[in-house]
């Protein structure tokens, strides 16, 4: 997935300012995976152990987990798609309809969650706030 889809897709975009965040679960942090991500993102990798430590399975601090997946799933399945094409169309439609204002609210919620956990993750907080400010205007699914 990473070598066949993720990295080639990144090559189509300017990634100099992008950060990559993983949840730190051991299934995502095999040495080969981390090495590949470090080669791609350098010090802009937030994962387990290095370069910026992030707790494993931290759904409370990961907007994709506490907001996006549940939100998308509920709307995608609202009309009970019966075919793969219908399911894919619903996913594209739901993602395309997420507006910048909604993402801004998610980011504000995320910031309040970070304030709650205190200074233990200060480095990750700084990195994430920077990343989210740069990417709060658009979410796409292609």
TrEMBL record:
The protein's name: Transposase
Molecular functions (GO terms): nucleic acid binding
InterPro entries tied to this protein: RNaseH_sf
Naturally occurring in which organism (per UniProt): Trichonephila clavipes (Golden silk orbweaver)
